[in-house]
Amino acid sequence: MAKRMYETGGVFIQAESELAAINMVFGAACTGARAMTSSSSPGISLKQEGISYLAGCELPCVIVNMQRGGPGLGNIAPSQADYFQAVKGGGHGDYRTIVLAPSSVQEFLDYTILAFDLADKYRNPAMILGDGLLGQMMEPLQIRTIEHKPQTIGKPWTLTGCKGRKPNIIKSLLLSEGALEEHNKRLQLKYKSIMDTEVRFEAANIGDSEIMLVAYGSVARISRAAMTAARAKGLKVGLIRPVTLWPFPQDAIANACNAAKKFLVVEMSAGQMVEDVRLAVNGRAKVDFYGRMGGGVPTEEEILQRIEAMV
Q: 267 Cβ partners below 8 Å, 6+ apart?
């Protein structure tokens, strides 16, 4: 990465710690530069305070989390047990992070570009939530050319020197009475706008399915194979793959209840996204769960067996 960033005119900085890395992102974002950092699970936990500061100061950036087994040091096998941390905030305060969940190498590229665009559009941190399986996967990749524009265009709030203008101030410390509450109210209006306009998901066989699978990331690919196998056996099975984990596609899942009377949520965790699915279903259908933990990866055969058991 250090070599590649130099070749493309970017800057690579080796930080001494995760705390340093996220605060370097904070500083770069203040100047209007597009900045990102990456880690896997425990490292992202160390960055949570900085992510909260970025959200509080409305600074755009991209954070990549390639989830691995936990809790604690755990192992380096794939996991999806950081879902709660990613979509519910993770750090302190009432804030949200835009969360995109790729399921292929191509989507990692495409969604990282999208994450930078959404971060800039809403002045908010955006996260790419992957896992160790996708992180070590080799697949064909089509790289599209992007026209790069000066990064500070449309960012009049940046700290780029105040010669000839009033100084800009970026801070999240608001001590005067009522100021922080008003700031939070404005943030919540922004989050409402994101929820109204930026939901993304993929659906298959949603019209006639009696059983609906819900999965994201690499597990969605395995679940799609299980769906195809079930269809070959005459079972009416569909799939909803959330692309944005926040904002979550709750309306799409609620609408799927018009046909599906049973849902099966598949995750590499003890069950985290399943809670959001149950909230979206709101009692209109039965929601079952199948999960593997600590680096365990669900197989097509295991998911198919659960589908047949539900039938």
A: 80, 83, 215, 216, 219, 273, 274, 289, 290, 291
Q: How far apart are the first and last CA of the chain?
A: 49
Distance CA 147, CA 59 (A): 23
Distances (CA, A) of 181 to 83, 166, 171, 177, 304: 27, 26, 15, 9, 49
Mean pLDDT of 150-155: 70
Specify the length of the chain in residues. 311
pLDDT above 70: residue 149: no
Q: Read off the pLDDT of each residue in 189-195 and give the average, rounded to a whole number.
A: 98
**CA 86 – CA 311 distance, rounded (Å):** 33
CA atoms lying within 13 Å on the CB side of residue 18? 17
- DSSP assignment of 149-209 equals --TTTT-TTS-S--TTSPPP-------STTHHHHHHHHHHHHHHHHHHH---EEEESTTT-
Q: How confident is the model at residue 145 (pLDDT cuts 50, 70, 90)?
A: confident
d(CA 263, CA 286): 6
Within 13 Å, how many C-alpha atoms sit on residue 263's CB side? 29
3-state secondary structure 152-166: CCCCCCCCCCCCCCC
* Band of residue 151 on the pLDDT scale cut at 50, 70, 90: low
Predicted model pTM: 0.95
Q: Omega of the bond prior to 156 within 30 degrees of 0, cis?
A: no
